[in-house]
Amino acid sequence: MHKKTAGIHHITAIVGHPQENVDFYAGVLGLRLVKQTVNFDDPGTYHFYFGDAEGTPGTLITFFPWSGARPGRIGDGQVGVTSYAIPKGAMPFWKERLQKFDVPFTRQERFGEPVLTLKDPHGLILDLVERNEGKINTWSFGGVTPDVAIKGFAGGILYSSQPEQTGELLENLMGFKKVDEDSDCIRFRSSADIGNTVDVRKTPGIRGQMGAGTVHHIAFRARDDADQQEWKAHLSSNGYIVTPVQDRNYFNSIYFREHGDILFEIATDPPGFAIDESKEELGSSLKLPEQYEPHREKIEKVLLPFEVRELD
C-alpha cells in the first residue's frame, strides 16, 4: 500500500493559564478561537483550538491549558519548533507588532527563508516565515487584518531521538518528499499548500520532558474515515502500534509513537467545527461532548473563566 498525507492537520501543546494562552494566540497573533471545549480524557481542563476563520486543517494549533502547570523541557520526542506562514511582505508588520507587545524575537534564515523566531508566554518556540502558498486568512482581529494575518502552519521542526528512522517514516510510509538539507535539518514536503513542510533535526539532543511550554503531539491529515482506516492498516502492517479510532467530535483520530519517540496522530479533515455552532459563532461558547453534557454545571464551576479580548 502506498499512502500520502496532505500534510499537518493540527499541533497540540500543553500551556499554563488559559487567559494568558488566549491573550497571546488571539490577542497578539490574531488567530481565531474556533472552538472551546474540554480535554475529552480530562474534562477538568479546557481544550482550545485556534486557527483561521473556518478552522481549516493545516491552520489549527490546540492547547490543554493548566494554570500552575509544571514547566516542561523541549527536547527529543517532541515538535521543537512550530512554524507559521504569513503572507509575502508581512514581515515588517509582525516585527512592529511583536515589539509593541514586548515579545522578544530573533531573526535568522532557514532553507533560504527569512524567519522570525519567538516564544509564547509559556515557552513554546514559534517561527514566522513568509510564504506565497496558502489561502489568505479572512479573519480580522485586534489590528491583524487578512493582508498580514497568519495563514496557518508553514510546518514544524521535529526533535527526534532517531532522526534517520523518523525521516524514513515521513518519506517511505507517509508520502513526504525529501526536498532539502542543511547542516541542522532535513526538510520534507507534502502536497498541501499549508502545513506542508516538516524538518527533522539531524542530531539528537537531550530528551524532552512533557509539561507547560511543550508540544504533546503532531497530527497529520486523512481525507475521511475510510482513508484513516487505510492509514491504520498501513502503519500496523509496517510494525507501528496504532490505537483504535478515537472520536474527537470535530474529527476522528488514531495515534502511534514513531521510532524517534514523537507522538503522531492521523486525523480526519471532516466533519469540522461547524457541526455544533454556526461559522459566525465559532468559539463563542463552551461545547461539550455528549457524554459530558449532563455534567456541564459541575464542569463549568471547575474551569477558569477567560475572555477573548483585543489588547492595547
Categorize the overall geometry: globular
Q: Mean pLDDT, as a whole number? A: 97
Distance between the termini: 53 Å
Which CATH architecture would you pick?
Answer: Roll
Number of domains: 1
Beta-strand portion reads 25-35%
Index terms:
8-stranded mixed β-sheet, 2,3-Dihydroxybiphenyl 1,2-Dioxygenase, domain 1, 16 strands, alpha+beta, globular, 312 residues, 5 helices
Write the layout of secondary structure elements.
Layout: E1 8-15, H1 18-28, E2 32-39, E3 42-51, E4 60-65, E5 78-86, H2 91-100, E6 105-110, E7 113-119, E8 125-130, E9 152-159, H3 163-173, E10 177-181, E11 185-189, E12 197-201, E13 214-222, H4 225-237, E14 246-247, E15 252-257, E16 263-268, H5 296-302
Parallel strand pairs: 1-4, 5-8, 9-12, 13-16
Antiparallel strand pairs: 1-13, 2-3, 3-4, 5-9, 6-7, 7-8, 10-11, 11-12, 14-15, 15-16
Pfam family, one: Glyoxalase
Protein name: Glyoxalase family protein
Domain VOC: 7-131, 152-269
